[in-house]
Write a structure and sequence with these properties.
The protein has about 290 residues and is of the alpha/beta class. It folds into two domains: about 5-190, Rossmann fold, CATH 3.40.50.300; about 200-260, Alpha-Beta Plaits. Helix content is about 40%, strand content about 20%. The protein has helices at about 15-25, 45-50, 70-80, 85-90, 105-120, 135-150, 165-170, 190-195, 210-215, 235-250, 260-285, and strands at about 5-10, 55, 125-130, 155-160, 175-180, 180-185, 200-205, 220-225, 225-230, 250-260. The strands form two sheets. A six-stranded mixed beta sheet has the order 2-3-4-1-5-6, with helices on both faces. Helix 3 (about 70-80) packs across helix 4 (about 85-90), helix 4 (about 85-90) packs across helix 5 (about 105-120) and helix 5 (about 105-120) runs parallel beside helix 6 (about 135-150). The chain is elongated and about 75 Å long. It starts with 5 loop residues before the first strand and ends with a helix. About 30% of the residues are buried.
């Protein structure tokens, strides 16, 4: 990871995300290999490292009868730094709840407090483990705004999330893990380009169009759920298809272009990885 980079670590439940994050944070020993975080071994130098990182754990909880202001003051005392409670509460849009008790806060407000606590020690690197899970759209966007602010300040963010559109919007680079193995890395654009399908023209109309399109224009054509997807290989292909349909006599209701998202690619990669693992397991049983 580079300074000022948002790195998204993605994978299905049980893939190894939280285990990996806990090893990087220095709260779980590794079983093999080498790990370096900010130049140090997190298990050997965990106490020193934890003064340089910020953490929102999965399913963040806090003392029910403390207010956000009290929580931030407490953390500042533990780290031995000046309290910036008012500044941090304003930053995460929680200033109006500064003196409310934790157990009266909504789920989104609790996550905002968790993010504020992760920033108390002015960290170089922030580990955010599913920080927007269960939040409404407005609360999610507030967290996104803070993450983008951290990036602008040159801080590194290690983000785990189940929201693939969130990763696609925020991350500079992504790694996808499944069954304990990294199966893809790169920028969102690189991963979509490498593993996704080409851009397509999506046509809602007479499915009898499919075979003539395939034969006459020599393009990849698929029929799914009563609609036709035509693979676009060059810039002029969409116009070529539409002109041919207009002169063909076949009816259609609408058309649009479609391109794979990170979520489409993620589902395909994870499914392929799981099938491959299952096949190997079956081969072992047969042997």
């Amino acid at each position: 990871m580079q300074p000022g980079e948002v790195f998204a670590f993605l994978g299905p439940n049980g893939a190894g995300k939280t285990t990996t994050v806990e090893i990087l944070e220095g709260i779980r020993p590794r079983t093999s290999g080498e790990v370096r975080v900010l130049g140090t071994d997190p298990w050997v130098m965990g106490r020193d490292l934890q003064r340089r990182i910020g953490v929102i754990p999965q399913d963040f909880h806090f003392f029910p009868k403390l207010s956000p202001r009290e929580a931030l003051n407490l953390y500042a005392g533990l780290f031995g730094v000046r309290s910036r409670a008012a500044e941090l509460l304003d930053r995460v849009e929680l200033a109006d709840k500064a003196d409310a008790l934790y157990d009266t806060l909504s789920g989104g407000q609790r996550q905002k407090l968790g993010l504020a606590l992760a920033l108390v020690n002015d960290p170089e690197l922030c580990f955010l483990d599913e920080p927007t899970t269960g939040l409404d759209p407005r609360a999610r966007r507030a967290i996104w705004s803070v993450i983008r602010g951290l990036k602008k300040e040159g801080r590194t963010v290690f983000l785990t999330t189940h929201y693939l559109e969130e990763a696609q919007l925020l991350a500079d680079r992504i790694a996808i893990i499944n069954l304990g193995h990294i199966i893809a890395t790169g920028t969102p654009t690189e991963i979509i380009r490498q593993y996704g399908r080409p851009e397509r023209l999506h046509i809602v109309g007479d499915v009898a169009l499919a075979e003539p399109l395939r034969q006459q224009l020599n393009l990849g054509v698929e029929v799914e759920n009563g609609a036709i997807d035509v693979e676009l290989r060059a810039k002029g292909d969409a116009l070529r298809v539409l002109r041919w349909i207009d002169t063909s006599g076949f009816a259609y209701q609408s058309f649009s272009t479609a391109q794979d998202t990170l979520e489409d690619v993620f589902l395909r990669l994870v499914g392929a990885s799981e099938h491959s693992s299952l096949d190997k397991s079956t081969e072992g049983e047969e042997a």
